[in-house]
Amino acid sequence: MATAFSNSGETVIHRKVSENDRHEEHDDVASYFEIPRCSAWIMKNGFHTVALQFPDRLLKDATQVAKELQSSTTSNIYILGDTTYGSCCVDEIAASHVSADCIVHFGRACLSPTSRKPVLYVFGQEPFDMLECCAKFRHLYPDINARVVVMYDVVYHYAIAAFSKQLAEDGYCNVRFSTLCDSSGISCQEGAASEEVADSSADRLFSARVQRSGRAFHMPNDEEVGDYGMFYIGEEGLTLNNLMMTFNKCAFSMYTPQTSAARHESLCTNRALMRRYYMVERAKDARIVGIVVGTLGVSDYMQCIRHLKSLLKQAGKKYYTLVVGKVNPEKLANFMEVDVFVLVACSENSLLDCREFYKPIVTPYEVEIACNDARQWTGDYVTDFRTLLPGSSGHIPMMGTGEARVDVSLVTGAIRNMGIADAVPLGDNSAALLERNPLLTVASSHSSTAGEFLAQRSWQGLEQQLGETVVSAVTQGRRGIALGYENEPESSS
């Protein structure tokens, strides 16, 4: 699966581009990109420098959008072309390069909360046939008393109010409609349409609020989420996979507006959960863990890294923090000593398909299960790392003081040690010295470190040969370019 992180770029070379894909333009740019709302927001808050973030598919309209915002405001407008990580996340790093006061994010979004700059989301308005969707919904759920939660891709949020009204007229009384919000509970929708959906779903009798993966809905206190079916409006992709893993006890169905196709989703969630539990076991077996920073914009990502370090330290595992930009197999293959990687990213990009990678890539939730005995595997799955941090509702303190314990690996069948007994005896800030090996090999502290791994390798790099290399004068090297150096003979062809 190619994602914003694992795509090596080779697919772009071999991709067949159709005429419709190259010239897909929006007839009314001002309406699609909500230019009046953007201008009003910028002027109301007095922002002087504004950064516009577009995904690749919308970059062709970026110039026109910037010109219209420039003419309707007195602000300096900048276009962010390439994102630091994924286009679904707000790129606060690129915006900081131009000292932007705010960011206007266009297109699909993971709705992860930001920490540095105010953000206005403009999801766009993709074509949506409301009557056709209602017909497909009636076909999938002929019982008007069926309990269903309607979720949708953010690009169809503008049409949900009309869809809600039509289903109510058809007699469906137990259908709940989700609203868009970040994990902090702040609504990402504006306008009368969103308020109408929120009011119809959040009846005063429904006091239980369910909020996960950027979606929130209300339901009676005496009902469980597993009692509801999930009807998703959108295309297959990371958003749907994230929702299916988060609400893995619910039966999913989906409607694709682009093709007008509707079906009950047949993805085997149990098999996907078994795959994730296998990743938990691999995390338990790991001695060296690489913490890969997959976001610099999601709020509290640094706190998540500190939390992971604390867990790994108490579990007796060595860790390294890696910042490699957009993750791909080639970059992570350079760290051969690492047994498993944990990716700190937004909720949609956390579930990375690691079959192309040399080592497994797990999520912070899976590391928590592997290292914290107080958190047990129950089948529920968490993709938002913020719910695991101290102070959140889903945080579970570490059990005990991290004493050494013995466990059996379910993957290899070998006995493994867990706890601080396996930790490095030298503290992180220790000034103790190690005796240098007279053979100039890497000194080992008898722990599961990268130094020990390198010391055990048969080839450790080029031999230094100190004092054996003859000193020679500096000579003139090649001149020119790689296409043809000056001292190369001319080609006969």
Key words describing this protein structure:
15 helices, four-stranded parallel β-sheet, 493 residues, alpha/beta, five-stranded mixed β-sheet, globular
Detailed description of the structure:
The model is unreliable at 18-23, 191-196, 198-202, 421-427 and 439-448 (pLDDT under 50). This protein has helices at residues 10-14, 19-22, 29-32, 35-45, 62-72, 92-97, 130-140, 160-169, 192-201, 238-246, 269-285, 301-314, 329-332, 364-371, 450-455, and strands spanning 49-53, 76-80, 102-106, 119-122, 148-152, 175-177, 179-180, 208-212, 215-219, 229-233, 252-256, 261-264, 288-293, 318-322, 340-344, 361-362, 405-408, 415-418, 480-481, 484-485. 26% of the residues lie in helices and 17% in strands. The relative contact order is 0.09. It is globular, with a radius of gyration of 27 Å. The protein is of the alpha/beta class and 493 residues long. A 5-stranded mixed β-sheet has the order 6-5-10-11-12. α7 (130-140) crosses α8 (160-169) and α8 (160-169) packs across α9 (192-201). α8 (160-169) links the parallel β5 and β6. The protein has 15 helices and 20 strands.
Please count the beta strands (DSSP E, at least 2 residues each).
20
Residue share in helices? 25-40%
The general outline is: globular
Side by side, the strands of the main sheet go 6-5-10-11-12
Biggest sheet character: 5 strands, mixed
Please tell me how large the radius of gyration is: 27 Å
**Residue fraction in strands:** 15-25%
User: How far apart are the first and last residues' alpha carbons, in Å?
Assistant: 44 Å
Poorly predicted regions: 18-23, 191-196, 198-202, 421-427, 439-448
Average of pLDDT: 81
Structural class: alpha/beta
Number of helices: 15
